Amino acid sequence: MFNKVLIANRGEIAVRIASTLQQMGVTSVAVYSDADRSAPHVLSADEAYPLEGNSAAESYLRGEKIIEIARRYGVDAIHPGYGFLSENASFAQACRDAGIIFIGPSPEGIRALGDKVQAKKAMADAGVPVVPGWSGGDSDGPDRLAKEAKKIGYPVLLKAAAGGGGKGMRVVAAEKELPAALETCRREAAAAFGNSRVFVEKYIAHPRHVEFQIFGDSQGNVVHLFERECSIQRRHQKIVEETPSPALTPQLRGRMGDAAVKAAKAIGYANAGTVEFLVDEAGQFYFLEVNTRLQVEHPVTEMTLGLDLVALQLRIAAGEPLPFSQEALRPQGHAIECRIYAEDSARGFLPSTGVIRAYHPPCGPFIRVDSGVAESTEVSVYYDAMLAKLIVWGRTRDEALRRMSWALRRFVVLGVTTNIEFLQKIITHQEFAAGRTQTDFLVVHDIKAASDGPIPNEVYMAAAAASECQNGRKQKGTGDGRANSVYDDPWQRASAWRGV
Ligand code: ADP
Ligand code: ADP
Ligand code: MG
């Protein structure tokens, strides 16, 4: 196993990776921008080194600088988390060239699947159904694209080949809107992803988003770790995720799982990946894309399988084979995740910035909180506005839903506007409870954030004062990311609080 691993990321995922490293006896190294000097991810790591600058381009995207730090301080491997450099094949290659292990797939694996157009082709070649579309080159010109769009039939979706995080996508309702939409889409793709390549897909009506976690090892074994349903989205980005999917029959699950594994095997994929599909109203599934990294919503899989996926990533990166066969994997119960964002759901999900004045996540049996912030953390404009993830487990979906609702009610964040109330509306909606979710759920059911003004601070403070978690946290010193360790044990917290 590695001695020292550098985490090339920030926020909740960097804190979460550090806790697994520490549990495995591996020294964790954080890197940080100026704005993140005293961020929880810095405090939770064993060592931390500055990157300088604030924007992602100046800091967390500076692959060369990160590799230089890794070399100087004797780092064996780099974990890229998600976003930033995680799907950057050149960075994975640069790590390899520097003799440092990149904890993820090979540069070849990222190249083969990271680009949406190439991935669709690879999947289609492996016999996996893909969303109907045209993925020819832009060099054939807008006329060709218009012709293909017409063949596919409107509405169509324009997509950036290098897109991610729900960005770089545009629905086109009719032919006459195509030229303008194409131009905007190209411009946005170039600015956001440094690659202006755009392709066109059939816009599937009211689909569900169902994805499969896959894992491959360097011995050529590939398994899937079952599905996650991520249909609740705003702006094409997930905010609520769960497993198992209420939509899958055992037969459909089997077919989709087989398709995901087959495709990964065909290209010799190693380490963690996620194969995303859309499932239409008729129950037909279509490949969407592969994320060649750890996924934001991986904790729901960890909860139902009792696995630590980061630990598994490390073992595989170190050359160990997968420690289980497909047949040995038996998910238990139901897990749900809610992404807690600093944003104003009532005002177009506008990101909210400011200093966090009070931060009291809920705790209790089968409740896990992965936080990237603490009291006094400044939520800036520079990075993604996700503050934390709230994950719960229940024996049944119904039990998990009730637990989630309870936990959301007790999640206190003061200083920035959050989507907590909005999430509560979703979780308690009768259509959600019935499992009738689709990617346009929020629009179809017109889910709106409360407009009845903010809850008085006194109410929050009273709630916070009653929280046992707060006491545990105070004892340990604020900002200690370890208070949110992966398998957060309320009993351990209680003893920390009592000082034993
Ligand atoms: P997931 O697919 O893991 O559920 P998201 O799609 O929300 O999660 O993306 C995770 C994070 O990575 C977000 O912060 C998003 O902005 C970022 N991200 C994902 N893909 C890309 C990409 N191709 N380029 C830049 N950032 C990306
Ligand atoms: P990203 O890289 O940003 O995650 P994806 O291709 O995975 O992009 O798509 C993100 C979301 O956009 C999907 O989960 C779905 O809600 C919507 N979407 C993508 N492609 C289609 C499509 N062809 N038809 C309908 N919705 C789509
Ligand atoms: Mg996606």
Produce a short descriptive summary.
By secondary structure, this protein is α+β, with helices and mostly antiparallel strands. Helix content is 35%, strand content 24%. It is built from 18 helices and 23 strands.
Per CATH, the class of the largest domain reads Alpha Beta
Our count of domains comes out at: 3
Please give the CATH architecture of the largest domain: 2-Layer Sandwich
Terminal residue distance:
32 Å
Unreliable segments (pLDDT under 50, ≥5 consecutive)?
Answer: 471-500
The coarse silhouette is globular
> Count the strands?
23
What's the arrangement of strands in the largest beta sheet? 14-13-10-11-12-15-22-20
State the share of residues found in helices, binned by percent. 25-40%
What binds here, in terms of ligands, is: adenosine-5'-diphosphate, magnesium ion
- Average per-residue pLDDT, rounded, comes to 90
Percentage of residues in DSSP E strands? 15-25%
The main pleated sheet reads as: 8 strands, antiparallel
Helical segment count: 18
Question: How is the CATH topology of the largest domain named?
Answer: D-amino Acid Aminotransferase, Chain A, domain 1
Assign the structural class, choosing from mainly alpha, mainly beta, alpha/beta, alpha+beta, or little secondary structure: alpha+beta
Rg calculated over all Cα atoms: 22 Å
- CATH homologous superfamily classification of the largest domain: ATP-grasp fold, B domain
